[in-house]
Amino acid sequence: MRIAVIGAGWAGLAAAVRIRQLGHTADVFEAGLVPGGRARRVWSRALHAHIDNGQHILLAAYTETLALMRELGLDPEALFYRERLTLKSADDLFSLRSLPLPAPLNLLGGVLLARGLGLTEKLGLVALCTRLRQRNWLTEPGLTVAQWLANGSQGTRVVQAFWHPLCVAAMNTPPEEACAQLFAHVLRDSIGASTAASGVLIPRTDLSTLWPDQVAHYLEKSGDAAGHVEHGLAGSLKLGHAVKALYTDTSGVEVDGARYDAAIVATNTPSAHRLLSQLAVVPDAAPYLDAMSRFDFIPIATITFRVEQAWQLPHPMMLLREDSEKLEFGQWLFDRSIYARQTRTATDDSSTGDSAPALLHVVISDARAMMTHKQEEVVSAVTRQIQRQANPSGARAAICGHHVIVEKRATFAARPGLIRPSNLSPWPRIAVAGDWTDTGYPGVLEGAVRSGRLAADRLIKDRLCAAI
Ligand SMILES: Cc1cc2nc3c(=O)[nH]c(=O)nc-3n(C[C@H](O)[C@H](O)[C@H](O)COP(=O)(O)OP(=O)(O)OC[C@H]3O[C@@H](n4cnc5c(N)ncnc54)[C@H](O)[C@@H]3O)c2cc1C
User: Fold this and answer.
1) Residues 6+ apart with CB under 8 A from 21
2) Does residue 180 line the site of ligand 1, with CB under 6 A?
3) Ligand 1 atom at minimal distance to the Cα of residue 448
């Protein structure tokens, strides 16, 4: 069968690979010019370097993403920098590092040895996590994270130092709005997991090089695993093609006029809603489309600073103390210089002979407040913030450039009660995929990959093969 995939984000690409693995052909249509969607490489003229559209991290518990990379012949151990779960502030006032012990002792020990919390706060934090584990990571339905924390008697200091940064980083939604049950899933996979599974993975390459770039070649290969060529099976990745028209009838699907057996719509929700709204009305179409139209989005900003020489911070990912009154919105400071292998960062332009520049990345999740201010004022304030917190002696090299990327629709707002559509749409030959489907995760990479793989499996096995 020939199946069209609309969108080359991590969900669409994961779906395309699975289609190929099941012996069918996938043609992927992508509006942008670089594969990866919301996790992709961009060229910064200001910094004369390839950077990501936003700094991303993964958890070692993101098993499907790691499995997919291995299936593409890639080695996650080489492509990620891995380290134990560590929350350490740049100003050294707060530090919590899970210990290399079996779960739950890894967290228990880490919390008890943490710096910046009192004994009562530590015991309260451990008690809340223990209760959640005993309840199999289930919270009462409909609670926000803030309500769950209040019910769990968490005081202001532990909320500010630990829970708030963790919630905003993991869900891109502040505790007052975020769904406690989704947060519990994140906790299960991070502080609740074994030492190995709770590790944090930071990409060593840009996000498109990590694996999305490999997919075009994989789809175009028309041979089977033993190298036998099957003519007519080659798929493709069509960049710069924004799909406008979608149609389906009982025997197939048309994507901008081209005929397919089926399609997976792996775009964001506004685009998916626009495409699916063109289809003939079928039973259950109205609530399905309605659910798709109810997503709100929250921005994430990333400020990438160029420094004259690598700062070589003691840790690649450090917490910043935020002060929105002073426009000091920075939440995390990433310094990849500790482990950077300069695979491709500086070079579509390698002819110039430039070496990769030293970069720092400041992440501002839930950037709604930041966006109400002038960008240059925020950059100046965040520059002061990182100098004061991560370079108080002024001994580190000077900052000599910056590039700001604000992703306005970075993730959906992960609020309680949000209805998330399932992969199989009411139209028999159309599935959807994306981090916004009912994955049980907030808007994260692993959710996107799982959604893409499941969409392809279910469309082919439950719908198309069942109909033959
Ligand atoms: C700044 C930032 C930081 C983040 N940090 C993290 C993190 O640390 N860890 C983590 O796990 N997650 C993080 N996320 C979330 C993660 O990036 C997303 O969950 C994931 O990339 C979503 O993938 P997707 O395939 O579902 O959607 P998308 O990546 O949005 O893919 C949809 C694709 O469809 C294309 N498209 C849309 N309409 C059409 C059309 N009509 N025709 C053709 N193509 C179309 C789009 O161009 C896009 O490429 C972050 C996101 C951002 C923006």
Assistant:
1) 71
2) no
3) 26
Pairing of strands 49-52, 58-59: unpaired
State which ligand 1 atom lies nearest to the alpha carbon of 435: 26
- Residue 449 one-letter amino acid: V
Q: Would you say the CB of residue 443 lies under 6 angstroms from ligand 1?
A: yes
Q: Which atom, in ligand 1's list, is nearest to the CA of 445?
A: 11
Question: Do 185 and 211 reside in the same domain of the chain?
Answer: no
The answer to whether the CB of 171 is under 6 A from ligand 1 is no
303 and 332 co-located in one domain: yes
Cβ of 268 less than 6 Å from ligand 1: yes
310 CA to centre of ligand 1 in angstroms: 29
Domain shared by 259 and 399, yes or no:
no
169 lies in a domain?
A: yes
Give the domain extent around 169.
Answer: 85-198
Residue spans of beta strands (DSSP E) within 208-342: 236-239, 246-249, 252-255, 258-260, 262-265, 297-307, 317-319, 332-334
Kindly state whether residues 324 and 345 are assigned to the same domain.
yes
- Whether residues 337 and 188 share a domain: the answer is no
Decide whether any atom of ligand 1 lies within 6 Å of the 361 Cβ.
Answer: no
What's the total number of domains in the chain? 3
pLDDT at position 353 is 40
Same domain, 235 and 272: yes
Note the pTM of the prediction, 2 decimals.
0.94
Instruction: List average pLDDT for each run of 10 residues in the chain, which is 468 residues long.
Output: 97 97 96 98 95 95 95 95 92 92 87 94 94 95 97 95 93 97 92 81 95 93 54 84 97 97 98 98 96 97 96 93 97 86 42 68 98 98 97 94 98 97 98 97 97 98 84
